[in-house]
Design a protein that fits this description.
Layout lengths: L2 H21 L25 E5 L5 H7 L5 E5 L2 H9 L5 E5 H10 L3 E3 L5 E10 L4 H10 L3 H12 L19 E7 L1 E2 L3 E3 L5 E2 L1 H13 L2 E7 L1 H9 L5 E3 L6 H4 L2 E16 L10 H14 L3 H35 L3 H16 L2 H12 L7 H26 L3 H9 L4 H31 L11 H12 L3 H34 L9
Parallel strand pairs: 1-2, 1-3, 6-10, 6-11
Antiparallel strand pairs: 3-12, 4-12, 5-11, 5-12, 7-8, 8-9
Helix pairs in contact: 5-7, 10-17, 11-14, 11-16, 11-17, 12-14, 13-14, 14-16, 15-16, 16-18, 17-18
Length: 511
């Protein structure tokens, strides 16, 4: 299979997408669900598996209502919880009334558990002791309950066509404020049309921002990262369906803006499935995952960021690796020990942890784009691995080569550059190619520091459609094609380099 065949395959896929988009209605109609829940009392949930978002401190509340839950399973997003519920991997998941009501309105196979677990409020989080919190609370007091209720009804509707955000057309004379917004929590805070962050939380914040005459910049991320981003100083406000409780109040301050309740989402007693054929369902699923709200653009944007991070990290990582190799060759003890420590740390710490340490701690007080932090982090990781690979190849070269070069009058550094490294090249290059391919796939964890790369784009689509098949298959196919094309390109470069190295001219013999 050549590059031309791969291009043809991609063209066919794009053509199919366009055909489906033309022949399928882009509007989806949902009716209010009146489904009967599978479980109707807390006692029925004894021994059952219950889902909970990672970082949500509600285990005690669950145990206070369900005396003997079988197991609490932790998930990174509501989409994962909902799919687990539909697949019978869990029997209920903990959520709030806004998320539950919208999910039940859209999907007749789901139902809201009839008994709430408790009452609370939604809140915007500020860093502990932030004096600006009072200004935002005062701005909120100028918005009437009637206005908030109208806003709630708008975003709670299952019909997405009427949902839009106001333009920030006020002067913004009091500056710009960064908001860490969870982008997987419809209807409160999520990515809608053209991957723009919207929702009840977002529009209400914009109304407050207009009153304060500030402009808002929204940074989308997983729910578990929102309050950590505020605590690190990278954002002023955390938003996205945050439920206020005593434990969270110890870490951050809140502006409370709307009443909320804790609920369980369960399966409906009857799945409400119709007689729609398999291919019709497949076609509708494809449309909802890629065509509606131009979600394919999110995938293309994620692919571009994946390529940018991979290439920049690969180039910078190689520069780091060769710099370390030359330092190691100098034979100085202290620098060599430092290199050993650096390589050991990178080898012993998962890539996602390294990225989070860089983003939230080392660069916590510095306003660096997450893409730059991700590129730097992966460059450090790739550099350490490449350094070990290159040095191992160098050690495999016969020491006699160095002795011969020195006997011919070469300096130590010149012998290393012109004799040893070229001979080691044939050993380390194939390994480096494999390591770079692994680096491309490893960038899938960059979403943990708010980078909207390819895997994160697929996750965001799943959070909107609550379907796994098309988003996951699309991401898998794109990664496969991307790594295959990169492998072919590197192979072409390697072939040309091999031909160049094989050219030998002997003075007095070759013309």
């Amino acid at each position: 299979m050549g590059l031309r065949h791969a291009a043809s395959l991609i063209s066919v896929i794009i053509a199919a997408m366009m055909l489906i988009s033309v022949t399928t209605d882009t509007q989806a109609a949902f009716a209010m669900s009146d489904a009967v829940p599978e479980f109707t009392s807390f006692d029925q949930l004894n021994g059952k598996k219950i889902g909970l978002l990672t970082g949500a401190p509600f285990e005690e509340l669950i145990h206070s209502k369900v005396s003997d839950p079988g197991k609490i399973e932790y998930y990174s997003s509501m989409a994962d919880e909902e799919m687990a519920l539909k697949d019978h991997k869990i029997d209920a998941y903990f959520t709030n009334n806004a998320v539950a009501e919208l999910a039940a309105n859209k999907d007749s196979t789901l139902a809201v558990f009839p008994e709430p677990l408790g009452e609370t409020v939604y809140g915007y989080a500020f860093a502990k002791g932030d004096p600006d919190r009072d200004r935002w609370e005062q701005a909120l007091s100028g918005i009437s309950d009637r206005e908030k209720k109208a806003l709630w009804d708008e975003w709670m509707s299952a019909d997405e066509s009427g949902k839009s955000l106001p333009e920030q057309d006020w002067p913004g004379s009091n500056g710009t404020v960064t908001v860490a917004a969870c982008d997987t929590m419809p209807p409160m805070s999520y990515r809608g049309a053209n991957a723009q962050i919207g929702g009840f939380d977002i529009e209400l914040l914009l109304m407050m921002a207009e009153e304060l005459d500030v402009h808002l910049v929204f940074t989308g991320m997983e729910f578990s990262s929102t309050m950590a981003t505020v605590e690190s100083g990278k954002a002023k406000i955390a938003a996205g369906c945050i439920l206020v409780n005593d434990e969270r109040k110890q870490a951050v301050d809140f502006v409370e803006y709307y009443p909320a309740s804790y609920v369980f989402m369960v399966r409906a007693a009857s799945d409400g499935s119709g007689g729609e054929g398999f291919f019709a369902k497949l076609k509708d699923s494809f449309r909802r995952n890629f065509i509606t709200d131009n979600r394919y653009r999110m995938v293309l944007s994620g692919l571009w960021l994946t390529i940018v991070i991979s290439v920049s990290a690969g180039i910078l990582g190689l520069l780091i690796a060769f710099a370390l190799v030359f330092v190691r060759h100098s034979g100085r003890k202290l620098p060599n020990r430092a290199i050993d420590v650096y390589c050991a740390l990178v080898a012993g710490i998962p890539a996602v942890v390294i990225l989070m340490v860089l983003y939230y701690i080392i660069f916590g007080a510095v306003d660096l784009p997450a893409v730059l932090v991700a590129s730097a982090g992966f460059a450090l990781i790739f550099g350490a691995r490449a350094c070990g690979t290159i040095w191992s190849a160098i050690c495999a070269v016969d020491p006699v080569q160095t002795e011969a070069a020195l006997a011919l009058g070469y300096s130590g550094q010149r012998a290393f550059r012109e004799i040893i490294l070229p001979q080691a090249k044939g050993v380390y290059l194939p390994v480096l190619k494999g390591q770079f391919i692994n680096l491309v796939k490893e960038t899938s964890v960059a979403g943990y520091i708010t980078v909207l790369e390819l895997t994160r784009a697929g996750d965001l689509i799943r959070s909107r459609t609550m379907e796994a098949f098309f988003p996951l298959i699309a991401v898998a196919v794109i990664y496969f094609l991307l790594t295959w094309i990169i492998t072919k390109l590197i192979g072409l470069i390697d072939v040309r380099d091999a031909r160049k190295r094989s050219e030998r001219k002997i003075k007095g013999i070759d013309a």
